[in-house]
Specification:
mainly alpha, MetI-like fold, 2 domains, 14 helices, 0% strand, globular
């Protein structure tokens, strides 16, 4: 196991290097440039230098005067020293801005992920054990609706019904108008109230796939020979399903759990943008639109690292949940 993990970590370092280079090259080729926007803004001020002069000065200032390869290795050198620079858009250190926004997205992602597991897995098991029943058809319709519904459409529908029509929640934002006049408990409830619709959106649009995975794999396991043997021995149906069959359906669930690790920290870009929640997804979107290379590079490489670690974690958990899997 130790040799396998070490080998995978070394492979991940190589993969991360090339992924980081591709990300940097794409960021340098974005049609939107912070430097161009700043040069245009400064050149319009009275008595200012021309746009071309500002472009030349700002390009040198932000080390954008070299090639993509040169700029990438400069960024690598700064990263290895723990120097991630200042965000061009937010005018604060990249790590500080990241730390201020990532935990809100983490809380949203963690709550929605736990709710997704608690709802999708039991419903998937019920659909499999009651195949072709009304419960199975109902759960299948719900799952397909969750998979098919676009995030922006479902979020807009929630806002129309619960904000515009019923007035239960605010349309957007994290805090209400009277937030500063509330006590600590009131401020907590105010933030929780603003997070209800974003979390519901995340749960509904993501649980459908897990329900389908659980149902499909549960049906395959229930038709296996060892399940028929367990029933022939006189074991209760509950023990057959939840002790013998369910464990073998954990492989796809482990895959989703491993793949969800980056999602807990990456934020929900579309959902946060639609509800104007100042999480890491909303912040990274505005940074990319503005051509903020330092923050966007830090964020995207961080997500790449989490993705590689999530895949490694999923491979290790395979051997934990399934005795037939042995890592060698």
């Amino acid at each position: 196991m130790r040799k396998y993990i070490l080998k995978r970590l070394l492979q991940s370092v190589v993969i991360l290097f090339f992924v980081a280079f591709i990300i940097y090259a794409l960021m340098r080729c974005l049609p939107t440039s912070y430097i161009e926007a700043m040069a245009q803004q400064k050149s319009m001020q009275p008595g200012s230098k021309s746009y071309e002069e500002w472009m030349q000065q700002l390009t040198v200032m932000y080390n954008m005067d070299g090639s993509i390869v040169t700029g990438f290795f400069r960024w690598i050198g700064s990263m290895l020293r723990g120097e991630f620079g200042d965000s061009w858009k937010w005018t604060v250190p990249v790590v500080e801005k990241f730390n201020d926004t990532v935990w809100l997205s983490f809380v949203m992602g963690l709550i929605s992920f736990i709710l997704e597991l608690l709802i999708a897995i039991p419903l998937g098991i019920v659909a499999a054990t009651k195949q072709y029943s009304k419960a199975d058809y109902t759960i299948s319709v719900i799952a397909l609706a969750g998979i098919s519904l676009p995030t922006f459409f479902f979020a807009s529908l929630l806002k129309l019904v619960f904000s515009v029509k019923l007035g239960w929640f605010d349309l957007y934002g994290l805090i209400g108008r009277n937030y500063n006049q509330l006590n600590a408990w009131g401020q907590f409830l105010d933030k929780a109230n603003h997070l209800v619709m974003p979390i519901v959106t995340l749960v509904v649009v993501s649980m459908g796939a897990l329900m389908r995975y659980t149902r499909t794999n549960m049906l395959e396991v229930l038709n296996a020979d060892y399940i028929r043997t367990a029933r022939a021995k006189g074991l209760s149906e509950k023990k057959v399903i939840y002790h013998h069959a369910f464990r073998n359906t954990l492989i796809p669930i482990v895959t989703i759990v491993g793949g969800s690790l980056p999602g807990l920290f990456s934020g929900a870009l579309i959902t946060e943008t639609l509800f104007a929640i100042p999480g890491i997804g909303y912040t990274s979107y505005n940074s990319m639109v503005s051509g903020d290379i330092p923050f966007s590079m830090f964020y995207l490489v961080f997500i790449a690292i989490l993705t590689l670690l999530g895949n490694l974690l999923a491979d290790i958990l395979y051997a934990v949940v399934d005795p037939r899997v042995r890592i060698a």
